[in-house]
Write a structure and sequence with these properties.
0% strand
Length: 171
């Protein structure tokens, strides 16, 4: 199946159209929200009557203050319930982690020399070499030639070894 590629100008044009439509939707949602808010306020909070004597106005103020106190108490109760539920959710999350445990990822085998490990840990400023073999002394092996006559009588060798053993035991 051969798919035709979209040209850059067409892609940019379509993208700008989508963005314009989205901006219009956002503006419409904002306008709808303002209308819904006004309708709710008109239904639940009618405008107080300002006409009348001072005693009537004082009574209206008392009613408004009582309504505010009642709403404030409800708001506090709801906030405390939400806070309690959040704390309970957090405790349950901790219990789940304790029960399941944290899974440790499997370690990967890394092929890295000791020098490159130290350079990765300490940074490139520090020059530390871990080439331990270079610090070792060079030792030449001495080849001991055993006399061929020692291979002879095995009883004699055992007696010599026994004498040597007695020498170590007495000291």
């Amino acid at each position: 199946m051969s798919e035709k590629k979209m040209t850059n100008s067409r892609r940019h044009h379509l993208k700008s159209l989508i963005l314009q439509i989205a901006a219009n939707w956002i503006e419409q949602e904002k306008a709808d929200l303002v209308v819904a808010k006004e309708a709710y306020m008109a239904e639940h909070c009618p405008a107080p009557e300002k006409s009348g004597d001072q005693a009537a106005l004082m009574e209206i103020c008392r009613k408004i203050h009582a309504a505010i106190d009642k709403i404030d108490d409800e708001r506090y109760d709801v906030a405390s319930k939400v806070q309690k539920a959040d704390k309970e959710i957090e405790d349950l999350k901790i219990k789940v982690v304790d029960l399941i445990g944290v899974k440790k990822p499997a370690l990967k085998k890394v092929r890295m020399s000791a020098d490159s490990m130290l350079q990765a840990l300490l940074g490139s400023k520090h020059k530390v070499t871990m080439d331990l073999r270079s610090n070792l002394k060079q030792v030449k092996k001495e080849v001991k030639e055993e006399p061929t006559e020692a291979v002879g009588d095995w009883r004699k060798n055992i007696e010599d070894k026994a004498d040597r053993k007695k020498m170590f035991e007495t000291s």
